[in-house]
Amino acid sequence: MSQTSSARLRPDERRAQILAAARQVLLADPHRELTVELVAAQAGVSPALLFHYFGSKKKFQYAVIEEAAAEVMLRTAPDPSLPPDEQLRSGIRAFVRAVLEAPQLYRATLLMSAAGDPEIRALHSDLRRVFSQWVINAVAERGIEVTPVVELACHGWQGYVEQTLLVWIDDPTVSPESLERLCEQSLDAILTTTSE
């Protein structure tokens, strides 16, 4: 896109264009660091213009992470037309695939949250809360009584999945399909420990 044609865009359209460019960069090479320079080049704008619309590198990163989080929630939302077991399996697979499409973004989200960035931490907490509640509801749909122990196990399983994905991103020693199965089967394995 040329600078002349891009100058006609409204501010909200420009932001959307830049965020779409960020996604294209991530999809083209999921393991490449998402830099302002790369995204600006993909969007056909200068880095200075990108900063004009987002204010800072940190705010730009937050906007990219926020959009990615919204997409993950949309992709992993339960499909009520499926049986409970398949709802759970398809949701877990969709989550893993979304992470593997943009592993650097996922790693940045977790690291920035762990480092205490308040906005990223709040976004990550919201994402985890929504996903955990979805998993708990899906477990209940399978006929499992959601006791405090079961609820705690579901939250703990999510932490396990996050760490497993981070390790795989750095050292992908198994196939993505094996990774999906591991994440699926680990929930069942953890739930077996909750029966009294």
Automatic annotation (TrEMBL):
Q: Does the keyword DNA-binding apply?
A: yes
Keyword DNA-binding among record annotations:
yes
Task: Report the InterPro entries cross-referenced here.
Answer: Homeodomain-like_sf (IPR009057), HTH-type_TetR-like_transc_reg (IPR050109), HTH_TetR (IPR001647), Tet_transcr_reg_TetR-rel_C_sf (IPR036271)
Q: Give the GO molecular function terms.
A: DNA-binding transcription factor activity; transcription cis-regulatory region binding
> Annotated DNA-binding ranges?
35-54
Annotated keywords: DNA-binding
Q: What Gene3D superfamilies is this protein classified in?
A: Tetracycline Repressor, domain 2
Q: Which Pfam families match?
A: TetR_N
Q: Which PANTHER family match?
A: HTH-TYPE TRANSCRIPTIONAL REGULATOR PKSA, HTH-TYPE TRANSCRIPTIONAL REGULATOR RUTR
Protein name, as recorded: TetR family transcriptional regulator
Q: Which organism is it from?
A: Kribbella pratensis
Lineage start: Bacteria, Bacillati, Actinomycetota, Actinomycetes, Propionibacteriales
